[in-house]
Amino acid sequence: MATTTRGNWGSKIGFILAASGSAVGLGNIWRFPYTAGENGGALFVFFYLVSILLIAWPVLIAEASLGRFTGKNPVGAFKALRPKGQWKLVGYLGVITGIMILSFYSMIAGWTLGYFFRAITGKFSTISGANARRVFEGFTGDTFLQLLLLGIFILMTVYVVSRGVSSGIEKFAKVLMPGLFIIMIFLLIRSLTLEGASKGLAFYLNPDFSKLSPRVIIDAMGQAFFSLSLGMGAMITYGSYLKKDENLPSATSWVAFFDTFIAIMAGFIIFPAIFSQGMDPAGGPGLVFEILPVIFAKMPGGGVFGSLFFLLLCIAALTSTVSLLEVASAYCIDEKKWSRKKSALVMAGITFIFGIPSVLSYSNIKFFKALPLIKTSFFGLQDKLWTTFALSIGAFFIAIFVGYIWKSANALKEITRGTQKFKYALIWSISVKFLSPLLIILVLVMSIF
User: How far apart are the C-alpha atoms of 27 and 255, rounded to whole Å?
Assistant: First the structure.
């Protein structure tokens, strides 16, 4: 059971908002639109929704139940249930994956911080679709600035994590996530009323199955895991802070719903705006940072909305970086018996070191911009290796462990604790034991060949 030194969520809504904060963030507003843009828009969205329903949601419940039952971090959870086996390696993979994703995720989060200061000082008032990319490339190419922003954002993450579960993570999530949602509604209305927005809606809503390829399915599944923070132990860790009498199926379902809803909403904001400005939907990682300033420049009061949006996007990124650092910190607290502050600082230092090559991917150093042999940047390699492969592998072994080692029947006892009925129990069992592992393996094989 979890002890008072580890902390607990103060309420069910606290868990939902914190876990949604882990899921809702740059994964939805930054990564989802550009990944969808690179994979045909509506076709990608279709397979993303299928992946959420058939694979991600069952694994989400599995992770949360594993965490609440053991009251441990990912490594401790596997050790508690199988102390003599090698299953703890899955937990270690989760901790390592979390740190590696945090290393390049914090770089992107630093972009949100930098763009907030640019918006608040009025530097986007004259930006247009024609020069948006040049502005973005000049910003990311400033290596010293990017390292500074990376360090600042990691320190911000350390501050929240070091304050604890209810006083830090939950408190921030309760205030800031609703604010992000309100601003997104204003942006949605403005984007849909732009001239030429209908072309973006067609790209986003009408799938062209003639363009179906293994990459579309692979990227859709990878986005589902990345967006819901699955396969790295974040939901095991967050689940370990959940009280025993809380309704687990309800809480996790709300998390999946909010995460998916925000991602879909982000697409309705981005794609109409992209096509209204004649920009390329396959614009890559810089897509959001190129198109949103253009929208704000055309909006009445755009300077205010732009400043507020990038501030809230920064906060949404923070709720996600907090969950990534919390996984590694919880491991150090539980297994190493370190203080929370020491755990957060040490893991943050490691994160910063691994974040440097990703920053250099956008500098003029050719090695990091295009790695020999594999023909991608260091950032591109990191993104593919950890968000597609590592998360999928982690989710696969978590599903196998819960379904066959811990046993789905035992997991269901924990899942139904605090509620009278879980009406999807049979469907969940079939999915976590058969459907999810099978589909994950199929997609991983497709990605290799």
Answer: 14
